């Protein structure tokens, strides 16, 4: 079976997320890194691409050049990852989908709900995959949580509690740091800072695991550092389509918290607790029973968990391997499409453009509710009401 060809836009030298994508895409031998426009500085992007092993004629200076160079090649890339800053996602993703490429776009997928709806329509019209990198949904035990909820191990889900709270923007004297400043500048970040950056991961996780969508929400948004226009902390109450109550806290001023992504799910028959910093253990408490620690890689887990676990039990797996599971799903989806067969259901779990759009609607709802002192507001995108 020939390897699929993979291209990347953004993720240049020194970027935060580029290495995790390259590790993830390369891990199972399904994708070969074949083309890239890796940096906003053309020469730096070409040079870095060549150093990473790209052929000189496929280490491009920018994404337009890459589109022209790839679209008519017989061995053109099968999948393009967009890992550039947020404001560029829409135009790049749109252009590549329209040229017939499958795309994995970083979150947030777009800057507005309208752009999000446009991407959903284009993906549907072109029949191309548009995935969104809610990469934490790739963890084996997150897949297992979803499987446990779906098969009824917890009964009806009453409550979900999600957090994504870190302390990396807590230093008020660091406000002019260029890596921090843009995130709280409405012109560059849009209507929300911390919720759009981190809160949407926690919200996506709550929806992914419960299999429900957000319908309405109420948000208390604050800038704990007063010079910031956009929020650095938010507490969001929400309601899911299956009746589950949702609570979410996201913060960037929580000193002492590192990554801080956690999920707890409480049903009629039991509760689950998982933390991204200890991703190889899942805590399950059955009603009236004893606390159980489920280990990644143990026997008799769900097919969804088995498929996304690579290293023997007791040896830690981490975040790039979660990203690798999104790529593993996408490789299966692309191959199934080429071969005209249905996709393996255990692989059909990668986040879609629809998830990216729902996140944008939630971002705008949080901003609206925050300004209205926590008033409950509609959180579904117009397209899905
Ligand atoms: P970064 O600022 O560290 O790196 C951005 C890279 O993109 C740089 O190499 C830059 O030269 C390049 N770039 C900028 N404009 C470009 C253009 N027009 N064409 C080609 N390359 C261009 O940013 P970071 O933190 O890596 O974030 C990138 C994206 O990934 C953001 O949308 C962010 O929200 C998302 N992200 C997602 C995470 C996840 O867990 N899914 C985690 C961290 C970031």
TrEMBL record:
Q: Which GO terms describe its molecular function?
A: nucleotide binding
Highest taxon listed in the record's lineage: Bacteria
Alphabetical list of InterPro entries matching this protein? Gfo/Idh/MocA-like_OxRdtase_N, Gfo/Idh/MocA_oxidoreduct, GFO_IDH_MocA-like_dom, NAD(P)-bd_dom_sf
- GFO/IDH/MocA-like oxidoreductase domain location is 142-273
Gene3D superfamilies hit by this protein: Dihydrodipicolinate Reductase, domain 2 (3.30.360.10), NAD(P)-binding Rossmann-like Domain (3.40.50.720)
Q: Pfam families of this UniProt entry?
A: GFO_IDH_MocA, GFO_IDH_MocA_C3
The UniProt record lists the Gfo/Idh/MocA-like oxidoreductase N-terminal domain at 5-134
Q: What is this protein called?
A: Predicted dehydrogenase
Q: What is the lineage of its organism?
A: Bacteria, Pseudomonadati, Pseudomonadota, Alphaproteobacteria, Hyphomicrobiales
């Amino acid at each position: 079976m020939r390897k699929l060809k993979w291209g990347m836009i953004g993720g240049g030298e020194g970027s935060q997320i580029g290495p995790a994508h390259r590790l993830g895409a390369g891990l199972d031998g399904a994708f070969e890194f074949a083309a890239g426009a890796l940096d906003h500085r053309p020469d730096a992007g070409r040079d870095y691409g060549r150093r990473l092993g790209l052929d000189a004629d496929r280490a491009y200076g920018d994404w337009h050049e890459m589109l022209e160079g790839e679209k008519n090649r017989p061995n053109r890339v099968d999948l393009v990852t967009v890992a550039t800053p947020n404001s560029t996602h829409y135009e790049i993703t749109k252009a590549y989908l329209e040229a017939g490429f499958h795309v994995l776009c970083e979150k947030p997928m777009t800057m507005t709900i309208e752009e999000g709806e446009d991407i959903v329509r284009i993906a549907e019209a072109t029949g191309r995959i548009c995935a969104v990198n809610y990469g934490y949904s790739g963890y084996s035990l997150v897949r297992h949580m979803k499987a446990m909820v779906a098969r009824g191990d917890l009964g009806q889900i009453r409550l979900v509690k999600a957090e994504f709270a870190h302390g990396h923007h807590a230093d008020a004297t660091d406000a002019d740091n260029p890596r921090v400043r843009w995130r709280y500048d409405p012109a560059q970040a849009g209507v929300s800072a911390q919720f759009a950056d981190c809160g949407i991961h926690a919200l996506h996780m709550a929806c992914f695991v419960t299999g429900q969508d957000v319908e309405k929400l109420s948000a208390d948004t604050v800038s704990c550092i007063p010079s910031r226009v956009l929020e650095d902390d938010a507490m969001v109450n929400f309601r899911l389509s299956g009746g589950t109550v949702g609570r979410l806290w996201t913060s960037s001023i929580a000193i002492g918290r590192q990554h801080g992504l956690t999920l707890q799910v409480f049903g009629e028959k039991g509760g689950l607790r998982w933390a991204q910093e200890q991703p190889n253990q899942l805590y399950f408490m059955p009603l009236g029973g004893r606390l159980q620690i489920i280990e990644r890689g143990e026997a008799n887990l769900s097919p969804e968990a088995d498929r996304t676990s690579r290293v023997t039990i007791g040896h830690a797996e981490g975040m790039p391997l979660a990203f690798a599971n999104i790529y593993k799903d996408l490789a299966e989806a692309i191959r199934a499409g080429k071969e005209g067969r249905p996709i393996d259901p255990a692989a059909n779990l990668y986040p879609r453009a629809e998830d990216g759009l729902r996140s944008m609607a939630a971002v705008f709802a949080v901003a609206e509710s925050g300004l209205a002192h926590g008033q409950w507001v509609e959180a579904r995108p117009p397209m899905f009401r």
